[in-house]
Amino acid sequence: MIFRSTIIIFISSLLLTGCYGQKNIQDLTYVTAFGIDYDHTKEEIIVKALALDFSNVAKQEGAKSIPPPPEWIGEGRGKTVEEAISKLYEDSQPDLFLQHVKSIILTESAITHKFKEINESLGRSNFFRFSVYMFATNSSLDDIFKTKALFFYPQTFAVYIKPWKEEGESYVLSAKSFREFLSEYFEPVGATYLPSLEVSSKSWEQDNKKYPLVQINGAYFFENQKYRGHQPLHEIMGIRWLDEEKKKNTYILEEHTQKRTVVRVTTSNLNINIKDPTQPLFEIQVKGSAEILENVNNLSEKEIKKKIEKLIHKEIKNTYLKGIEINSDVFRLGTSWFRFYKEDYLNFSKVNAGGSYLNKDSLKKIKVTIHIRTSDNYKSKTHSNVYDTKSIYEK
Fold first, then answer.
1. I need a surface site. Which of 160, 195, 248, 297 has the fewest CB within 10 A?
2. Contact 75, 84 (CB under 8 A)
3. d(C-alpha 268, C-alpha 81), whole Å
4. Of 210, 235, 260, which closes a domain?
5. Residue 135 sits in which domain range?
6. Is 81 helix (H, G, I), strand (E, B) or coil?
7. Taking the model in full, what pTM does it have?
């Protein structure tokens, strides 16, 4: 009986699957980001892959590599995205591993000429997950991929790989996953966007030389499955209030004076009210909290509250009007109208077929409510007056 059981166990063990055929980490080319461009002269789609060099990263256990890790950028060309990736596969050894791709970056040429085909290819492809982040750029993909993070950290710390911050300031525009983008892209009303990237050398220097970094500089907007246009970041700052995730951003009051008041505002929520269901008339209500970081002029909380609410009101209004310029509902005002008053929306659309349901007067009211959470007035007064107070031992 024991012998028979032993035979059964031995035969069963032969049928079990093990790690045979699995490749080691050094036997694969790990791609972290993809770029897609379009060459309209040759009518070819260009796919560029940014690969991670584990020989310089894994050994450091999170520390920066010394010397800086090299850039490994592959390129494949074809009439379709799948063909271009297949060409890249053929020319790559070790084999490509695409399960760790974090982002896909589209060039402006790809958006304006082949966006529909590229979008469909990405949706059908087995190479990518729907959780990858989507970005766009008017810069060279080579320049984007070759630009490292601060202190020569690898590109895994770049904004297109890690589009969030652990603490402090938040990005004005949130990165969208492919899934989030598609869900808004195919809705009949309301705009969606892809954050745009550029290489900028404005903020940092290294050995008296400008140090370039990849930054978000605006957004490419889409609505009703059509590309609407690009707007720079400074023109659409109000879009930060549309995000459900709370954001922290600094506002500067009294910019035209030497003594300024600095306030950090945390966004809370944005509500859209429909004034008249039979026509597109809307009201935006936003709420947030503020922390006073600097108050040199010792403004009262009431004055600061009034000034910051006025500044945010202007920011939201300007963003809305910039959307109107490119025929785009950037605040997605029509989404609530379509969902809750669909019949009224359809009746209006029949009468105004072919035109936008928004104009500059459709946003009737913007109500901003900011709660001053903490005040720096007490600290300012204490620190400024402490040296003016005479010592009790002074005669």
1. 297
2. no
3. 40
4. 235
5. 23-235
6. helix
7. 0.84
